[in-house]
Amino acid sequence: MDAEEARRNLEQARQSYDASVTPVLPRWAPPVCAALVAASIALAGVGPSIGWVKAATIAAGILCALAAAQLVLRVRARQGVSGLRGPARQKWRTVGVCCVAVLVSALAATPNTRWIYAGVGLLLGIYTWVSLQKQVRP
Question: What is the pTM of this model?
């Protein structure tokens, strides 16, 4: 193996690794994911006084968060990347811990704090959009 062939193989391995960590997203994915993330936080923090309504809004927030995660995982699967390895696994672990923290705080949400959750949801939605926009096809 000469130096040029080794360089090509190394570049191909680097591109394969980058594709497995940060998939290329279609143009519609970042705004949809951002809306789902914003809705999940806002719904989880509605905090109505009636117990079953509170459980329903928290469940709807969980469903929105799961839909956002499924969207990204399905895009990865369509590109032939299955499973999570390396930095992608660590990022998903961090996201999971954050979701548990939001869930626990949503259980204590009251009607007076719903605006805080709405604001945080909006900010996280914008952050999600900007972060995922970096992975859109040129």
Answer: 0.77
Mind listing the pLDDT tens digit for each residue in 62-83? 889 889 888 888 888 887 777 7
Q: d(Cα 58, Cα 40) in Å, to the nearest integer?
A: 8
Q: Please, what sign has the CA dihedral across residues 3, 5, 8, 9? A: negative
Phi/psi zone of residue 16: left (φ > 0), alpha (ψ -120 to 50 degrees), beta?
alpha
Over the Cα atoms of the chain, what is R_g? 19
The CA-CA-CA angle for residues 14, 18, 23, to 5°, reads 150
Structure token digits, residue 123: 């900010």
Asked if residue 88 lies in contact with residue 20, where contact means CB atoms within 8 angstroms, the answer is yes
